[in-house]
């Protein structure tokens, strides 16, 4: 890509990064420009002040230029009196510049680290507010890489671009000072450093970009071993594949280490070349000056050149390092901006319900068809159904018939490819947050927070706002009283990853209590009684019967006892409704369903 296009893209992407963090690019640019100009000016003054000081030291005369003004102001032209004063001014300028440089760096670091944190958080927010179907098609390892590694890479580019701008201004200012003091010295310096800096950077550019890609690819690879190894700990242990995961992780980390080493050496190499350039410049300049000027003037010019070099060499090193960071970090910036664009295009869920918006009445599905984005044919088709309010409807069917998909559609998590799903005559997608407010959902696998049992039941409600009376009530309804009584700290017991381990059945009952805590109008159970033993399942079935009539209950279940008492049974086969009606009606009219019951698959 041509340099202009590359720079334009970089500018645009950095603008996007700042936008993602909610920062105002204008105030950012203004701050950087003002700070950089102030620093460059002070640098120039400090270095330029070396000329009169050296002139004073070498010639002892203060009768021209700024020295004449100082000597008039102080009323003395004695070098013994003037030298400490001029030296003091030079030192003061350097000290002031250093303090300002430190303050400027503090400001920049504050802004940049904040932008890194905000961009990463915003990306995380966009991921978790993305449409459900999009989320299901994403790879977790890529999410981890975007919100951590790639955001960090992008912010390092932002910091490097700022440093590059500031350092370039300083270098230009120093070049101006040298050019004013001696144009021929500037010419020699420009030729030597120009050849070195541009030549080296040309050679390194592609290599640095490749290293950036390697860093990013190996970061993804390491997440791809770490995450499944933790999520699939049991499977890894039982299949003796834990070491294979650890080996894969190690390989990825070594790739990162190798790339890091290459990057460090490539960023460092220009420094040594610049030092060689400095020595060459001193020799070249001394040769030119000795041939053209007096020894006193040679000394003055060399002193200015030395002071400029003291400042310029580390600055040039930083320029080389900044260029390396920009090129290697470009991959991260690409990932962050492309991901943010893609997430934005997908749309973000708004969790705030519209005021005065509420759903009530029967749920009706009209000619619903659904196809997963990456599938070539629909998994559900021609689904028309009336789910009566305050009645219990059970969905049954063989594995893969489409029960969970249908439930996700009714929940509003998935949107029909065609057809409509309405409650009380209004599409559930019209105001999803308000629709969700009606629902209490018990999933197959209940997710536990690392928190107290009470917090797990009230899920998402801040500790201080938890209604303990309601928690106690739903604990009784979900048959959890015995479990709570056995816990060391009752409701305050920590559960989840690092807390008390709970059985599958206990987790499912917590799931039921959690769903009921929300006082739902619609209770949805997705295979929610699968992990319960017969006795508990019987008790839960009794609970559900007691709730029957007071709320709409939707159940996907394999157990005969759970679905037998449903008011309506919907039998699904190959993505279509085969039969609906009471349990006995469906058994009598659908030979397939009758066979399932007979074979004990619904048992
Ligand atoms: N994300 C997806 N992309 C493509 N196809 C999918 C996706 N999720 C599920 N399917 C397919 O959709 C069909 C219905 O799946 P679904 O999970 O709804 O069935 P189910 O009746 O709930 O099955 P089970 O009782 O085994 O849980 C299956 O053929 C499944 O392979």
From TrEMBL:
Pfam families: ABC_tran (PF00005). Keywords: ATP-binding, Membrane, Nucleotide-binding, Transmembrane, Transmembrane helix. It comes from the Bacteria. It is found in: Cell membrane. Residues 30-328 form the ABC transmembrane type-1 domain. The chain crosses the membrane at residues 28-51, 81-104, 157-179, 185-204, 272-291. Its main location: membrane. Residues 363-599 form the ABC transporter domain. The keyword Membrane applies. GO terms for molecular function: ATP binding. It is a multi-pass membrane protein. This is ABC transporter ATP-binding protein.
């Amino acid at each position: 890509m041509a340099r202009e296009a590359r720079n334009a893209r970089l500018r645009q992407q950095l603008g996007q990064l700042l936008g993602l963090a909610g920062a105002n690019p204008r105030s950012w640019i203004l701050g950087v420009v003002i700070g950089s100009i102030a620093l460059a000016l002070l640098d120039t003054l400090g270095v330029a002040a070396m000329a009169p000081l050296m002139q004073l030291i070498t010639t002892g005369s203060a009768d021209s230029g700024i020295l004449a003004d100082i000597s008039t102001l102080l009323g003395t032209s004695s070098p013994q009196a003037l030298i400490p004063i001029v030296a003091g001014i030079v030192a003061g300028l350097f000290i002031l510049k250093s303090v300002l440089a430190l303050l400027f760096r503090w400001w920049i670091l504050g802004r940049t680290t904040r932008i890194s944190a905000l961009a990463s958080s915003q990306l995380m927010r966009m991921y978790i507010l993305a449409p459900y179907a999009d989320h299901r098609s994403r790879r977790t390892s890529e999410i981890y890489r975007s919100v951590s590694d790639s955001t960090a890479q992008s912010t390092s580019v932002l910091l490097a671009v700022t440093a590059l701008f500031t350092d370039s201004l300083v270098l230009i200012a120093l070049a101006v000072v040298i050019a004013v003091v001696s144009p021929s010295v500037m010419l020699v310096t420009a030729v030597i450093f120009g050849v070195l800096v541009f030549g080296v950077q040309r050679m390194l550019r592609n290599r640095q970009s490749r290293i950036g890609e390697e860093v990013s690819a190996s970061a993804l690879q390491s997440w791809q071993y770490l995450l499944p190894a933790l999520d699939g700990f049991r499977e890894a242990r039982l299949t003796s594949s834990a070491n294979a995961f650890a080996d894969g992780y190690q390989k990825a980390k070594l790739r990162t280490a190798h790339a890091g080493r290459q990057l460090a050496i490539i960023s460092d190499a220009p420094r040594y070349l610049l030092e060689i350039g400095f020595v060459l410049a001193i020799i070249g300049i001394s040769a030119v000056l000795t041939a053209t000027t007096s020894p006193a003037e040679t000394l003055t010019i060399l002193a200015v050149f030395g002071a400029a070099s003291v400042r310029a060499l580390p600055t040039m090193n930083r320029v080389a390092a900044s260029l390396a960071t920009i090129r290697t970090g470009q991959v991260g910036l690409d990932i962050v901006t492309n991901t943010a664009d893609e997430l934005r295009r997908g749309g973000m869920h708004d969790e705030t319900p519209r005021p005065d918006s509420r759903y009530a009445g029967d749920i009706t599905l009209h000619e619903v068809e659904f196809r997963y984005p990456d599938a070539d044919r629909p998994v559900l088709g021609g689904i028309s159904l009336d789910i009566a309010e305050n009645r219990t409807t059970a969905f049954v069917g063989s594995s893969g018939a489409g029960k969970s998909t249908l439930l996700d559609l009714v929940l509003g998590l998935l949107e029909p490819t065609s057809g409509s799903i309405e409650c009380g005559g209004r599409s559930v997608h019209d105001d999803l947050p308000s629709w969700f407010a009606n629902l209490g959902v018990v999933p197959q696998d209940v997710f536990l927070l690392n928190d107290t049992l009470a917090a797990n039941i009230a899920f998402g409600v801040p500790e201080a706002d938890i209604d303990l009376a309601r928690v106690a009530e739903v604990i009784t309804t979900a048959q959890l009283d015995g479990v709570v009584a056995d816990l060391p700290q009752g409701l305050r017991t920590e559960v989840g990853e690092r807390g008390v381990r709970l059985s599958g059945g206990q987790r499912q009952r917590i799931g039921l209590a959690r769903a009921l805590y929300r006082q739902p109008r619609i209770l949805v159970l997705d295979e929610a009684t699968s992990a319960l033993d017969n006795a508990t399942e019987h008790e839960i079935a009794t609970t559900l019967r007691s709730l029957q009539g007071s709320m709409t209950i939707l159940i996907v279940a394999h157990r005969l006892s759970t679905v037998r008492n449903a008011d309506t049974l919907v039998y699904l086969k190959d993505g279509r409704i085969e039969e609906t009606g009471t349990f006995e009606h469906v058994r009598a009219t659908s030979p397939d369903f009758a066979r399932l019951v007979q074979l004990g698959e619904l048992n």
